[in-house]
Amino acid sequence: MTDVLRRGRTSLAFSFLVQGVAFALLVTRIPGIQNRYGVSDGMLPVFLAAVPILAGIGSVTTERLVRRVPPSRVLRWSQPVVLLALLAVGAGRQMAVLALALAAFGLAVGALDASMNMLGVSLQRAYGRSIMLSFHAAYSLGGIVGASLAWVGAHYGLALWVSYLPVVLVLLPAALVGSRWYVDGEAQAPEEKGAEAGAGGGLKWLLPLCLVMTVAYIGDSTVSNWSAKYLQDVLGSSEQMATVPYNVYMVTTLLGRTVGDIGVRRLGAVAVVRAGALVAAAGFAVVAAAPGAWVGMLGFTLLGLGLCVLVPQTFAAAGRRAYETGRPGASDAAVARLNVFNYVGFLVGSPLVGALGDAWSYRGAMLVPMVLVLVTLVHARSFAPGADRYGGGHERPRTADVGRSSNGL
């Protein structure tokens, strides 16, 4: 059984990595996509907003789908769709092709994000200790790899399909092979799982976690969309130096998530979440007050170290709370609904900072996500384990709770 769990953990971590590569290849080549299809500056926000909206629909659909089929099956087939949609974006020429490819990408990403985190929550339950941050560390690593590949493609003037095709040819079959070892949660009859998920429709305890998820992604989207502009226009850096903060942010996110599980095991989830919120708020404060580019980059470094723990621990807390209520089937529903607020934060964050920057100042705009991330401190107790601990305690689950492999092992 230990071998089953280890293979399941490795295969799921690889899936997170693949998703990080695919998403980074899309978002970092947006100027190239815009030029290829002739998308105007006015139309570009419409296309960009459509992806997270459709991803939210995909996540909600997955909540219903996993009542009938295991999350491993949803993940197994949604990941190839994401990769093929990415390739279609790079290979198409007409606006209709771009619209259809992005629609497929968005819907599949929603299903993929939800099912990946469902499997991560159930695996953490089976392990009896915090491992959720390690999966999101794999995603961060994939993002760094994808952004690096995108830089190479842009630097050498490669066509989009030339950049995307080798990646898809390598990752798609590897992901399909790896999907044989996904591990689902404990088996339930479809009618039992559907009844439990339906009973969880009024899970009011999920609301604080939804707020934390939204705030975390407002912070993340602020860095990804505004760090370069802020460093160049506000802090007076060169164009080349303005590309550094996001890379620094991704590297520190990877580092923080790599060691974060150890912190959760030793200090507990509540302490780690509180520390992350305080460090992230300090990062925004440093960015807002920075006299120059180097101090600004220090602020973005702090943001990576602080924000990196919030999202994985929010998913983990949702799954844990569902298990503690005695309704394991509600865990998948909770994760799927929580995942929607990932996209809400992404949609709100960038326009919010942009509007405040234009109407007020970009320094002042950075104080708004700083205040929002401090809201996490108010709801930090929502991350506390109950009788069933795998944050600050060491109680392990019963053997009957250990998941089953998606290929029947």
TrEMBL record:
<feature type="transmembrane region" description="Helical">
    <location>
        <begin position="12"/>
        <end position="30"/>
    </location>
</feature>
<feature type="transmembrane region" description="Helical">
    <location>
        <begin position="131"/>
        <end position="152"/>
    </location>
</feature>
<feature type="transmembrane region" description="Helical">
    <location>
        <begin position="158"/>
        <end position="183"/>
    </location>
</feature>
<dbReference type="InterPro" id="IPR036259">
    <property type="entry name" value="MFS_trans_sf"/>
</dbReference>
<keyword id="KW-1133">Transmembrane helix</keyword>
<feature type="region of interest" description="Disordered">
    <location>
        <begin position="389"/>
        <end position="409"/>
    </location>
</feature>
<keyword id="KW-0472">Membrane</keyword>
<feature type="transmembrane region" description="Helical">
    <location>
        <begin position="267"/>
        <end position="288"/>
    </location>
</feature>
<feature type="transmembrane region" description="Helical">
    <location>
        <begin position="294"/>
        <end position="319"/>
    </location>
</feature>
<keyword id="KW-0812">Transmembrane</keyword>
<dbReference type="InterPro" id="IPR051788">
    <property type="entry name" value="MFS_Transporter"/>
</dbReference>
<dbReference type="InterPro" id="IPR020846">
    <property type="entry name" value="MFS_dom"/>
</dbReference>
<feature type="compositionally biased region" description="Basic and acidic residues">
    <location>
        <begin position="391"/>
        <end position="401"/>
    </location>
</feature>
<feature type="transmembrane region" description="Helical">
    <location>
        <begin position="97"/>
        <end position="119"/>
    </location>
</feature>
<protein>
    <submittedName>
        <fullName>MFS transporter</fullName>
    </submittedName>
</protein>
<dbReference type="Pfam" id="PF07690">
    <property type="entry name" value="MFS_1"/>
</dbReference>
<feature type="domain" description="Major facilitator superfamily (MFS) profile">
    <location>
        <begin position="206"/>
        <end position="409"/>
    </location>
</feature>
<dbReference type="InterPro" id="IPR011701">
    <property type="entry name" value="MFS"/>
</dbReference>
<feature type="transmembrane region" description="Helical">
    <location>
        <begin position="42"/>
        <end position="62"/>
    </location>
</feature>
<feature type="transmembrane region" description="Helical">
    <location>
        <begin position="340"/>
        <end position="356"/>
    </location>
</feature>
